[in-house]
Request: fold
Amino acid sequence: MTTARRYQPHYTVEDYRQWEGRWELWAGVAVAMSPSPLGRHAKLLGRLVAALGNSIEAAGCAATVLVEIDWIIARDTVVRPDVTVVCGPEPEGHVEAAPALVVEVLSEATRDRDVVFKRSLYEAQGVPTYLIADPEQRTLHVLSLGTDGRYVGSLGDATAMPPVLGLCRDCQITLDPAWLFR
Reply:
């Protein structure tokens, strides 16, 4: 007895652009995004954007902080990180090259996606720094690409985070985890 193959649609960016609602596209598979964040998540997101923006400005970096902007990775892959930092000015449209830094703020609905799938995707795409912020555990995990192209770094306590992060060419910024989770 043979089993019929299950039909699995394969969507593209062109399909994605016509959808209503909040979606991502992972290798041709439509993935519904969770509803808007709850208070603690939203507060941390706001503090991260402020901290990144202030640090970039103070350091004189040629970088731009973007919130929930689509990153078109391939013809069949689009993600929307919570925060994206690109070198130079904001793009005219969506982000289409690997950002300098990506931040995901964990929630119960997105935890596995952010820690497993997106970590692997961002690593494969060469995102130099991936920050995973956990508002419940009050931790900030810093992952940086090593010389072998794999992420290295802390998946533990925010105090383990280096106080300075390399960004773009010769720019360094500072984030204070104690302030972020205050």
Observations:
- The mean pLDDT is 89.
- Helices lie at 13-16, 39-59, 111-124, 177-180.
- The two ends are 61 Å apart (CA to CA).
- Residues 7 and 144 are 38 Å apart (CA to CA).
